[in-house]
Amino acid sequence: MKIIFTEDVRGKGRRGEIKELPDGYANFLIKQNKAKQANAQAMSQLKGQKRAEARKEAEELEEAKKFKELLESGERVVEMKAKAGTDGRLFGSITSKQISQELEKQYGMKIDKRKMELREPIRTMGYVNVPVKLHNEVTAKIRVHISEK
Description:
By secondary structure, the chain is an alpha+beta fold. It has three helices and eight strands. It has helices at residues 23-31, 40-72, 96-107; strands spanning 2-5, 18-20, 35-37, 77-82, 89-94, 122-124, 126-133, 139-148. The strands form three sheets. The chain has a three-stranded antiparallel beta sheet, sandwiched between helices. A three-stranded mixed beta sheet has the order 4-8-7. The longest helix has 33 residues, at 40-72. The protein is elongated. The N and C termini lie far apart (71 Å). The mean pLDDT is 91.
């Protein structure tokens, strides 16, 4: 029997996948609401869902690209002040959370701190490029300037 998975079933199929399974197992999955029979109506509904998902994904990608342009346009530099020693090393460090808060304060742009790909907190003064993963395919760079208080 041909079925369409409505949920992921480990070892058998993923949500939205169409597969041919033995009748007994297919009926079991249908009763569990993990699959439905692949008739013409269900197939067209699945195609519609896939088109909607593709459209939504394209919109998210476009939005991420626009946000990247907005972040990198002009000379946007996040200015931060911190206490530092004589050799230019900071007392403490600058984290992605602080950068996110400062970006929102200065430019009104909200970025989740988890999207910033700082390998380790910033401990030196000067300019630093911080990569931000906005989407699977889109990565922007925020320029951060750390100066002494």
